[in-house]
Design a protein that fits this description.
Largest sheet of chain A: 2 strands, antiparallel
Strand content of chain A: under 5%
Shape of chain B: elongated
Radius of gyration of chain B: 36 Å
Number of helices of chain B: 17
Order of helices and strands of chain A: HHHHEEHHHHHHHHHHH
Oligomer: heterodimer
Number of strands of chain A: 2
CATH topology of the largest domain in chain B: Beta-lactamase
Chain lengths: 416, 583
Amino acid sequence: MADRLIFKIVVILLTIGVVFSYSLSSYLMVRFHTGEFSYVLKQMVFAIASIFTMWSISRLEPDKWMHRIGMTLFLGGLFLMIIMNFLPRSIVPEIGGASRWISIFGIFSIAPVEFFKIGFIYFISWSMSRKVDIHYQYRFVSEFKIFFPYFVVYLISVLFITVIQKDLGQSVVLGTALIILTYLAGGSGSFIFKIVISLTIVFIGLIVTFGHRIERIASWWIVVRNWLPDWMVKVTGETSGTEPYQVQQALGAVSHGGFWGVGLGNGIFKYGFLSEVHTDFVLEGIAEELGLFAIIVIFTLFTILIQRILKIANRSPRRVFFLFNIGIAVSIGVTLLINTYGATSLIPMKGIPVPFLSYGGSSMLALSFGIGMVLMTSKEANSPIQQPLGEPQTYIEEVNRVEHDISNIQPSKFTS
Amino acid sequence: MQIQQSTKVITIFLVFILALFGVFIRYTYVSQSERDLSKIIIKEREKAKRGSIITSDGYTVAYTEKVYTATVDTRDIPEDNKKIFAKMFSIYSGIPEEKILKKINSRKGIVILARKLNFRQYEGLKKLSRELTASRILVGRHVDGVYRYIGLAVVESGAERIYPYGDTLTPFIGYTNEYHEGRYSRVEGVKGIEKRFNDDMKPIHDGYLRGNRDVRGVIIRNGNLEQMVRSDGSDTHLTINMALQKRIELILSEYKEKLDAREVIGAVMESDTGNLLALATSNRFVRKTLKDISYLNVDAVEYIFEPGSVIKPIVYALLLEHKHIRRGQHIDCENGKYWIGRKKITDEHPMGNVPVEEVIIHSSNIGMAKLVKDFDPIEYYNGLKKFGLGIRSGLEVSREIKGRIRSIHELRSHIYRATTAYGYGILVNFMQLLKAFNIFNNEGKIVIPKGVAYLKRGETIFSDIIRDTPTIENSEVISPATARKMKHILIRTVKEGTGRGTDIVGLEIGGKTGTAHIASRGGYLDKYHSSFFGFANDKEHKYTIGVTVVDPEEGYFASQTAVPIFRAIVEALLETKFLEKSY
């Protein structure tokens, strides 16, 4: 039996998303004469497709299908991300200075990065579960040798996602997932620390290269400054300017909502004040109409969802499923965190959708693949009897390890 | 190993919870904090208007029109589009293209392109503004990452008073001056009806719509919408009939020129109600081309003069009322020369011993002087007051000069009783005489002359207009019998006396002429006033009519000046069907 609670929570979140794609898009509908139901209909079609996808994937046999689906998403996503750079503008339109979508017959468009994200998590999980033996502690050099290829793969995708598609948020999500998976797969604390430091340097480099990000940080600083004691502000020096417009509007919307909100459909900030209210700022739009209360409910749903996925991960009989489930939980969690921190201007980062809630089919559909796969593995994990970790695989991995890294073996302090 | 893995997973979960809690605190803080939400609320004001002035036959002789100002932010016009912008603006506003081009090239920022645009231009330019935005002839710009666009804006900037019929009904309706209330210009009455009813006509309160707005400033009609309907000032409805008024104005202007007079005043009043059908003067004005400031005055109540012989019927009626004249009495008019003490009185038409009515019919000063010889000063004084002399007539204008009559003390002297009796040494205005003569044509009852019928705000009519006069409406000044007697004498005056030339067959016409020299610094000049006051009735209608010619150069006698004007007015009444020949 697949985990029903996860399925239910996702359906609830998708439903909330559909309801608000109707309410929050009202200004766009009027402004662009798209017809009253155009947004909600698209969102509903995708939501139903997602629920169906989730359900059908969850019924499949994990031994056979996990690898097929995971690798298809990874390779397919990567392929699309590469070839979209060579496709004409009519198919890959530039929206807001970034080419993130592939238009299909001009009816709807998909963002390959969303599918690639799930595929990437599967690929890392699969590969790491084969190559890394958690029972041994590696020396730094050999640890570096094992994990370095993953970071090369990661940096290549960062090149596509951040540099070409200008989507820093997704890279951060993937990076975080990668680091946590490295850690859980057996990477040592000091190695993780060094990786984090070097990745930070890479990101600072990227930020410096792209001027508009500096502006964004400067305007973010103005918000943060208000929270700091005076002496700290003096040390760092004054920066001129006001709160960035979008943040102002987002915070205004939350403030307008209060605890119970102004009522479904009664929001004001959606009328052109808070742009992207139906996508990146969907939580603020919800907060205005249904108040802080709705934020509490949504946060609770996400917390339960992530707790359930982590629980399934922890009970997974195989390391690849364990790592994959962790990766999905991290991906959902970090996406939510980046969005909320960004929207309330706690970090200078924007442009990442809220999982399940934001308007947009790709993110939803890709996540439904991810959740479907989680549900698929949950069938094995839910057994109350703790099964030993997959012995045969550990054995194979051990052979592999002996083959390529025998010199680095040290006595391990393992406990079980 | 299993424990270590669980620990790691739990750690990850705890970190997530902690991080989520952190941002939750932020949401809580923001949602409970007060932020300035005034930007999402908009108040659209709708300025209330000043009431109009409307004649009894429905002509609006004064109304307020909103005027609009057009501005453009020149930074929103790309260099290449300046020419086309100027052309388009010129088409919709009627302002020459070069003028617009000069203005938009004058400086960067918001420039006023046109002021005092009317509603039609406003509608056109508003449409143009939308078109220019849509076609990107005007484009916004980014300032600190925020898109700013003002483009072409057309806003209501004030109100202007319009007098569509030019000088018609001036100076009675008066005029207004403009004053500024912030950036908004309004008008205020300075004289005439405009001033007298300024408080009634001025806008009561502006209307507004207050509610949430979208980012482009459009009001959202949701449950938060507050609405206040604007409340305009009252309309003033006149008793004046435009058709008649216009005709009489033309008659007066024509005679002013013909007689080379300084001014000709004329009025027609409904005898039983006091409603003025026309209140005209030859000296009218259009504000913009005004040359002579005295034209601003409503001389019917602001110009006082010695009435001369037209006062005689009034005094005669008082004598009749107080039984100082007996039926069949004869009076010796001394063949034109009579002395009171050292003062000599003469007549234009010397008469001998004649029936007493002839004193009025042939306008004998001597006869009048003799008749008032024993008239009680208190009865005399009070009688004149009751006729409305020396007190305000009550016409609804901003200013009235009431003149003066001899005091009781002065009237104890025969010479003052005599001079008063033939209209010298006292000062009256035109309206007082009209009001007094009306008594003869209204069964002895006095009515207050009325230029304003009622005020109307929305559907509510306010007809209890306060008129500044001690006169009590419809009170009896003389008995109906005396009135009938007087009426008869005045009819005879027209048929056989000084008023000859006014009689028209089929109508009942009566009246009295009067000529008086203009007094100046104690002496009399070779200038005079010539008047005719009387009435013209058919079987259904009764009208009191007055004419005063100020300082005519041609013709001395009223029969050559005021009388033909009176006749022309009666003919105008016939033309406009106010009178029909029915006798």
